[in-house]
Model the fold of this input.
Amino acid sequence: MEQMEKDLLKSIADISGFMPGSAFNLRKNGEGVERHSTPNVKIVTKEDKPGIDIIVKAYTSGESVHIPVILTESGINDMVYNDFYIEEGADVEIIAGCGIHNDGCDTSQHDGIHTFHIGKNAKVKYVEKHYGEGSGSGERILNPVTIIDMEEGSFAQMDMSQIKGVDSTMRKTEANLGPGAKLVINEKLMTHGHQQAHSDVTVNLNGEDSVVQIVSRSVGKDTSIQVFHPIAVGNNRSRAHIQCDSIIMDQAKISSIPEIAANHVDAQIIHEAAIGKINSDQLIKLQTLGLTSDEAEKEIVDGFLK
Amino acid sequence: MEQMEKDLLKSIADISGFMPGSAFNLRKNGEGVERHSTPNVKIVTKEDKPGIDIIVKAYTSGESVHIPVILTESGINDMVYNDFYIEEGADVEIIAGCGIHNDGCDTSQHDGIHTFHIGKNAKVKYVEKHYGEGSGSGERILNPVTIIDMEEGSFAQMDMSQIKGVDSTMRKTEANLGPGAKLVINEKLMTHGHQQAHSDVTVNLNGEDSVVQIVSRSVGKDTSIQVFHPIAVGNNRSRAHIQCDSIIMDQAKISSIPEIAANHVDAQIIHEAAIGKINSDQLIKLQTLGLTSDEAEKEIVDGFLK
Done:
């Protein structure tokens, strides 16, 4: 593996190569290049369309699955369907992510359609990082679609972040919660240059005592544009808490269009959103401690997105 | 004036008849029936369409204007355009409101299009109550449109409430704020039966240091449906705070779709919304004090909308 590829893997999945001993699938420039399953986690190529099925056996515990995607050639347009079958009572961590290195002048694009079938009482922690780099003028585009179907008593935590270098993203997330299911979504997003980011999240609280918590934090720099559209629909006795905080800098534009709907008398839904610039007291304090204004700004932004 | 008409006036404008000595316009069943101007507040019939111009002279102070509308016949469809010209430095209170008494089986509808031209440093307090009653099967419909253009340093407080008996309402409010303008909107809404209420509020913070505060409180009972869609757009150094709290009861459905957009680095926008049922601790406490469950519920709802 080239050093540049290793660096990409480090940025998106915190690994430096293949992961012997644990379930693993590396997709590079639109093709699978390395894979291994374990007795409890099977990774199988789809037969009808590009992509894989990841099957986690019932009551599996303590395993992790890495499924990174990297694009290193300019002009690649990759679309992939990944289905996760997390069987009853399994407890698993999934590390996904996509890194694009584009030194060319053509657009590199990866659209991942991820569908989670989370069984009764199963637990999933899903970590997804999106990252772009490269000296070319070619755009780096990521359009992830995430669908989450949660059965009774299941739990899912989705940590999804886009830290740097993605020119355009259209994120779509849809979750359907069964009885007692609990979903936590932590979204982090930073845009710079003339990047654009849209994020639509829809959560349907269908089951009794289902719970969702969404925390979205974003920073918009330069002339970038961000649009957030989280939707929580309480169709049963349920609770939802959505919190969106954004820091706006330079000539960036940020909008937030949440939608909360209670279709049941015992649905309890709370939404909070704030858009504002960096706290000037904090800036001054850090500068008093010896940081330049740029360093102080970086410190605050990093802390906010941590 | 009949007693029923007097009662309607009491409900919507807290008056029991004409208001000699102050500016006044009563519209009944689609026609003006009584009017008087004062030296500082002129009320003039529009020539191109139904409605009136209300002109408040510059630097007028301490005057109030009553412009109630009542519909007492079934089957009336009344549309009226009222323009308010509040000249520089004037300080005025405007009491509007519409009461419908419908004993028939035909729909009674009043659509008021109100446009406020608020001059430099002028101050307006606007109170609008909507109320319906009557034993007929005919619907009572109110579709108010309110447009507010605010010049430099002006202030407006809009207290708009729909307390009871309005079968269907589509409220549209749009405000454009100049430099240093401050707008406060207090919205109160109660729906019952199979009523429907939609409220769209758009505030454009165009001027430097413009400020808006919106507090919306609502209660949805029975099978009624409420939809709120407040929008705050910060196009300059400005501040917005939107707060929507709703109590949901019975089989009611409530949704809230706020939209906050910062198009300027010094725009600071905060939104909070909560939908939930009546606090059960409060209910139990009031029942312990001797109230029946219905009385306790009424007490809490009245307190919430006060």
In short: The radius of gyration of chain A is 20 Å. Chain A has one domain: 3-277. Chain A is about 10% helix and 55% strand.
